[in-house]
Structures are given as structure tokens and as C-alpha cells.
Amino acid sequence: MNTFTINLLEVLIKGIPETILQIYSIYLLTKTKFTIKQVLLINALSVGFVICLKLLPIAYGARSLITLVFMMFLFIII
């Protein structure tokens, strides 16, 4: 089985900006107001969740669906 390792550089260069763009686009599409605090909180929780999810032996399609459900859950709560 192939092991998957995540390094900090990958998270900083790819994970955080990618998640910020996803969050920003969702706020733009729904035309809701947001604060930087909300964006940073959702970003931190979602990047942490994705890192933990990538460590599990789950297929990519299922991982994407789980991440989507988690993001919807975060937007409802926060």
C-alpha cells in the first residue's frame, strides 16, 4: 500500500489559498456578507479536516464528497 505524507509546505502553498478561494467564491455566489474572521475560521477548520481526511484510505471521489458536506456544514454553523 502506498503511504501518503503531507508536508507543511504543501499545506501552505496549495491548501490554504485553495480553500480561501473556495470560501470566497461561495460567499460571492450566495451574495452574503462575510468577515475576515469567518473566512479564516472556516479556512483553518476545513484545511485541518482535509489533512486528516487525506490520511485515511478513502478514494478521491468519496473524499471530495465528504469535504463538500463538511464545508456545507461549516457554512451553516458559522
Question: Which range does the strand content fall in?
Answer: under 5%
Q: List the helices and strands in order.
A: HHH
Low-confidence stretches: none
Largest sheet: none
Q: What's the overall average pLDDT, rounded?
A: 89
Q: What's the oligomerization state?
A: single chain
User: Helix/strand/pairing class, anyone?
Assistant: mainly alpha
Q: For the terminal residues, how far apart are their CA atoms? A: 38 Å
From the spread of the alpha carbons, the general shape counts as: globular
Quick structural overview:
It is built from three helices and no strands. It has helices at 8-30, 36-54, 60-77.
Mind explaining what this structure looks like?
The protein has 78 residues and is an all-alpha fold. Helix content is 77%, strand content 0%. α2 packs antiparallel against α3. The protein is globular and about 35 Å long.
What topology does this entry show?
Blueprint lengths: L7 H23 L5 H19 L5 H18 L1
Helix pairs in contact: 1-2, 2-3
Keywords for this entry:
single chain, mainly alpha, 3 helices, 77% helix
